[in-house]
Amino acid sequence: MKKYILVIFSIVLCGVFAISCEDDLTYKGSALVEFSPYSGVFGNVQEFDDGHFMYEIDGGDIDSIQISLIAPHFDRDIKGKFIVLEKFYYIKATGKVLTSLPDGIEEGDYDEYETTAEAGVDYEFLNDVGGEFTIEANSSFGFIKIKTFKVENDKDLLLMLIPSEDVEVSENYKYFYLEIKD
Questions:
Q1: In sequence order, what E strands does the chain have?
Q2: Which of 34, 43, 110, 131 is an S-S bond match for 173, by CB 3.0 to 4.6 Å?
Q3: How do beta strands 141-148 and 168-169 pair?
Q4: Which domains, and CATH codes, for the chain?
Q5: pTM of the full structure
Q6: Pairing verdict, β 168-169 and 87-91
Q7: Residue pLDDT, tens place only, 147-176
Q8: The 87-91 sheet, strands edge to edge
């Protein structure tokens, strides 16, 4: 009986030593940003393909598109950047979103999305300073605040995060498709 207790104790002790010898698991890569699936108060966020978000908002609302920081918190405010895209393509075979079509892709192999919303007519960014947003010190999130106006027909707005001096962009969720509903 003592032998079994000693074996069990030895196994538990080995487990404790193995756990205590783990490497430091702190994220050490570049600071990244990506669109968050938890954007907005009024809208309905859903994935429109493998990892890129579609978000619906009623015209006439004010809302926020959330950006997530993938890095340890900074002790200062950091700036990120975004642009409005004229169009992008969803490649059906790969599930990728691209801003231009590669050679060899035939009609029917992709879906094309276009920005139909017009700045100042259908929407305006409330915190837009040249396509920038801020992630405040010691925070994991920043926001692109948007005000939409009443629209006669649904309008689409395509956004893409781009690198800034402070952060790189995650390839996972760098595109965002906003539909302004009539």
A1: 32-35, 44-49, 52-58, 62-70, 78-85, 87-91, 96-98, 110-114, 123-125, 132-135, 141-148, 155-162, 168-169, 175-181
A2: 34
A3: unpaired
A4: 31-181 (2.60.40.2030)
A5: 0.78
A6: unpaired
A7: 999 999 999 999 999 999 999 999 888 888
A8: 96-98, 87-91, 110-114
